[in-house]
Amino acid sequence: MKESIFTDPFKKARQETGIGEMDDQNDPVAMILGHKEVRRAAHNWKSYSSGAIPGRIVIPSEVNIRSIRQIPFEVDPPQHGAYREVVEKWFKRPLEKKYEEELTLQIEALVIEVLEQDSFEVIHDFALVLQSQALTLLFNVPFEEAQTWISWGTHVFRSKDSALDGAKANVLYDYIDQKLAESSSNPGKDFYAVLLAAEVDGKKLSAEEAKGVLILTFAGGRDTVINAVTNSIAYFAEHPKSLEWLRKEPELLPTAIEELIRYFSPLTQMGRVATQDTMVCQHAVKADSRISLCWASANRDETVFENADEVVLDRKANPHVAFGFGTHNCLGATHARQVMKVLLRTLIAKVKSIDIHDAKDNIEDLGDFKRKVGFDSLTVKFNKI
Ligand code: HEM
């Protein structure tokens, strides 16, 4: 099978009932699969809340390893809006010229380095490094800090042996505590200082609230970006004509990036907790039970996307929901899009073609649904122009 094919395991259930069911640590989830229904439920925060106990809207649930609320992600309106306002401007900085220039220097240096190698493993030697280095720009901290983040591996809560690794999570929590303590005695011009100076409804953000924002920023933008980068490299390895096409028509880049993100949907789903008894797609949802907004399924909905299972780099209308929809749409999307833009721009400028030497899939086990979300490892060679 071609490495860059990402099948849609939800198709049958989406077409037949619109609902998928899975268990998650004895806390079942009714997965909403259709595009229209996902968008509708994402809007309806009164019935489908994000503000449940910390960790419960995440799948797999993190209730056993996390008691700190992630902000603004696990907060409902109207409080959500107040928190979001505090960080929204900071998360738009990737649009600044200097940010893009520095990102370009980082990514070009990485691509030049791997171009000299006979082969390299994309996730650990490239995507994780790229993601960590780029995040230093979002935090506005020294570039060298990336080394510490790289040492944590590809997921801050997961390890090889465990989908939810409490000990590993503690490494992140301790690190954040230390950085916040340093910042409160000696504030710099970084994200920590911005958070500690921020006020919500006339009150300073507490250290616990700042920590909630920081955990989310470290966790939310990690394996999502790593998968988007790695999967794109596998795609261009197997579609050299697409790489040529973008080389000839770089004005297509923004459209191509949206399409790759739709197709790969790096975040499969996100949960909500029902606040009352409701019905979704003729499926009864009990109060205090979990539903999920299955972005990956919605993005393959054939009633919305023509040739939904194909990558159409010049797809015109592309109302994908890979970055979420409505209230909680992804704050890191501006950064993620810039990372993808600079990466693809660098690839078309410097890489003639890509050979895959070895690949091992990363398959998410969602009960009846098995979804390829990326790779456990991908070894490739970049060929110079
Ligand atoms: C929210 C996907 C990158 C930070 C979301 C949501 C999705 C998503 C689907 C909505 C969650 C919900 O409705 O409950 C992605 C994908 C990414 C990506 C596919 C990469 C390709 C990032 C990055 C960061 C980030 C790089 C930060 C460094 C956030 C935050 C929220 C969020 C803070 C919560 C926003 C809120 O609650 O208002 N993301 N994300 N994400 N994402 Fe991302």
Automatic annotation (TrEMBL):
GO MF entries: heme binding; iron ion binding; monooxygenase activity; oxidoreductase activity, acting on paired donors, with incorporation or reduction of molecular oxygen
Cleavable signal peptide: none
This protein's UniProt keywords: Heme, Iron, Metal-binding, Monooxygenase, Oxidoreductase
InterPro entries: Cyt_P450, Cyt_P450_B, Cyt_P450_CS, Cyt_P450_sf
Top-level lineage group: Bacteria
Record PROSITE patterns: CYTOCHROME_P450 (PS00086)
Family in the record: Belongs to the cytochrome P450 family.
Name under which the protein is recorded: Cytochrome P450
Origin organism lineage: Bacteria, Pseudomonadati, Bacteroidota, Flavobacteriia, Flavobacteriales
